[in-house]
Amino acid sequence: MSNQPYATAAAGQKEDVDLAVAAATRAFTDGPWPRMKPRQRARVLDQIADAIEAQDARLAELETFDTGLPITQALGQAQRAAENFRFFADLIVAQTDDAYSVPGAQLNYVNRKPVGVAGLITPWNTPFMLESWKLAPALASGCTVVLKPAELTPLSAGLWAQIFRDAGVPDGVFNLVNGLGEEAGDALVKHPDVPLISFTGESSTGQLIFANAAPFLKGLSMELGGKSPAVVFADADLDAAIDSTLFGVFSLNGERCTAGSRILVERAIYDEFLERYAERARNIVVGDPHDPATEVGALVHPEHFEKVMSYVELGKTEGRLLAGGGRPTGLDTGNYVAPTVFADVAPDARIFQEEIFGPVVAITPFDSDDEALALANGVRYGLAAYIWTRDLERAHTFARNVESGMVWLNSHNVRDLRTPFGGVKASGLGHEGGYRSIDFYTHQQAVHITL
Ligand code: NAD
């Protein structure tokens, strides 16, 4: 917020990663964690969830301080982190694995085994919650872990060690190495004793990790960037669509992987939509992230602020500015960007194609379902899509044809944790969520018996 130094975090080097991996390997090879019954591990995971909830106010405070997220939204992230642990605790206890019999001839069953030391690399947006999305299934599966959080937001990750110790996680199961991506992250990716990497971050970083992990044939799960479309048809519930598309790109400061950062609006309602949307955007409260009245806080870092501002300037040449367009009035220092709305943005514009990761939205009109689909699919990303229409057939047809890992019909944000989470095209590799996460962190060995 003030861009003054407020904490010093360790810059872990390869030697630190080696030590962490050695501890995790010992805990995996000799320790009780991978050998516990699912119910025993689930009890520990439930205690972790309780501990997170018990300090949600402190956690939210840290997260707001470190990331610039509005405090009311940071509170929600702590709740979601706790829920991730409860969910995977329930899942491993309920889990069944297949057995197949060929009567009188053969019996076949599946032996599920944790893969080993999981390397977890996470970004700076909603850091604690995204760490929990990896830690919970990795630990539930019986893996031991080395977590490398984002260098820009190391504070909340410091809470994990105490939470895990208090909950009864054995020593060596959880290891944390703070540090830069190209140092600590790189060493983790290239460590021969880490058989799998779960990564969330930019698509370009994902490509580099993919290449660096290739010689080791590591298991990879990649949750990458997005430029998700929100498509508003003329028959939509316009009030709900406006509420949702504002939330979609201006909540979490726009620093949200699933942000609906391109809004495609049917021509018949285009002008009305623009007028109402821009009016609402101009009234969003930007300010001190700690103030409960704040709706958009400060961006995470001055470099990221500069990047977002460069897109704001570019947008003035690529679209029609309807709201924002720079710093909010009265906030002359700090990483504050006024919620910015560009209309009439052409599909080849950079602000239509590239992930900005800030409170900036591009709006484009369309005349037909086919054109809307072509616009929605006309980017390299494919993470989420939001569709607003009262016509169910159109909604389901569009959902089937849109190139995205997730679709929200007349809704946003809320998802059942059993559903797949992930992107297609440049937005990711593999899907997590529900048993898919457990599958990623476990080997499924087939055992065949001749009767
Ligand atoms: P980033 O790619 O810069 O960094 C992510 C993590 O990777 C950090 O911990 C960083 O230190 C590490 N890293 C960087 N270079 C590395 C290397 N060479 N080897 C190993 N690790 C390395 O991403 P960011 O700026 O922190 O996060 C924002 C991005 O994350 C956006 O693109 C956003 O869309 C994406 N994201 C995606 C999802 C999703 O679920 N798809 C969720 C949140 C964020």
TrEMBL record:
Transmembrane segments: none
Domain of life: Bacteria
Pfam family, one: Aldedh
One function term, GO molecular function aspect: oxidoreductase activity, acting on the aldehyde or oxo group of donors, NAD or NADP as acceptor
Entries under InterPro entries matching the protein: Ald_DH/histidinol_DH, Ald_DH_C, Ald_DH_CS_CYS, Ald_DH_CS_GLU, Ald_DH_N, Aldehyde_DH_dom
Active site: E223
Record domain Aldehyde dehydrogenase: where: 3-447
Gene3D superfamilies hit by this protein: Aldehyde Dehydrogenase, Chain A, domain 1, Aldehyde Dehydrogenase, Chain A, domain 2
SUPFAM superfamilies, alphabetized: ALDH-like
Key words, A-Z: NAD, Oxidoreductase
UniProt similarity note: Belongs to the aldehyde dehydrogenase family.
Protein name as it appears in the record: Aldehyde dehydrogenase
Species name: Leifsonia poae
